[in-house]
Amino acid sequence: AVVGIPDRARGVRLYPHELAGGLRQRVMSAAAGAARPRLVLADEPTTALDVTTQAEVMAILRRMQREYGMAMLFITHDLELAGAVCDETIVLYAGQAVERQASKRLHEDPLHPYTAALVRARPEIDRRVERLPAIAGHPTTAYEAPDGCAFAPRCRFARDECRVGVPPLLRIGGGQTRCVRMPELRGRLLPQAPAGTAANEEAQR
Predict the structure, then answer these.
(1) Which of 45, 60, 68, 62 lies closest to 1 in space, CA to CA?
(2) pTM for the full model?
(3) What are 121-144's pLDDT values in tens digits?
(4) What is the Cα–Cα distance from 79 to 157, expressed in whole angstroms?
């Protein structure tokens, strides 16, 4: 009943290929919550679903969290969705955590150039642009990562100090970042927020 599967008696006799994508995700959610776990790992649970079905699946997962008191580790490539679902977001690049921050703050005031590039590349319905900003170069896998910051070959802010040793996680404000230049770059990674906004005021601290 929690996941909203219609005609459950018939549904248990069906094979996965006989179910629509959204219904398959409901079945997976029911299976995940059957044991009342403390933690659920949701790895791309909305992949290949239309926006309406995606919203329904996320509503089911949130309902399960409330009713079962469970935590959720949500893995996704959709930064916008992560911001809407998660209290905190960790951004990975080449197998390393490059930023950890409260989701709302991460979108307003990113602490790593890679995170900022992802935020800038998102389409927005309230503005029209000729072309979305793209990240130069090609994605780097963990075994291809160079010495120093793995993102340095693609980063417009990279300097010599970025290419020596694995950058440590620095604590900046309420978040963490693996960018050694962040103390001087903070507030410059995104177009300047209007004066008086929370992001602008926080960036000045």
Answers:
(1) 60
(2) 0.80
(3) 887 777 777 788 889 898 888 888
(4) 22
Gap between the Cα atoms of 49 and 38, Å rounded: 26
Tokens of 69: 């008191």
Question: How do residues 83-125 score in pLDDT, each as one tens digit?
Answer: 988 999 999 999 999 999 999 999 999 999 999 999 988 877 7
Which domains occur in the chain, in start order?
Answer: 13-75 (no CATH), 87-205 (3.40.50.300)
Six-digit token pair at 28? 């997976």
Three-class secondary structure assignment of 76-145: CCCHHHHHHHCCEEEEEECCEEEEEEEHHHHHHCCCCHHHHHHHHCCCCCCCCCCCCCCCCCCCCCHHHC
SS3 content of the chain, % helix, strand, coil (to 5): 40, 15, 45
Q: Strand, helix or coil at 175?
A: strand
Higher pLDDT, 93 or 195: 93
Angstrom distance (rounded) from CA 38 to CA 65: 9
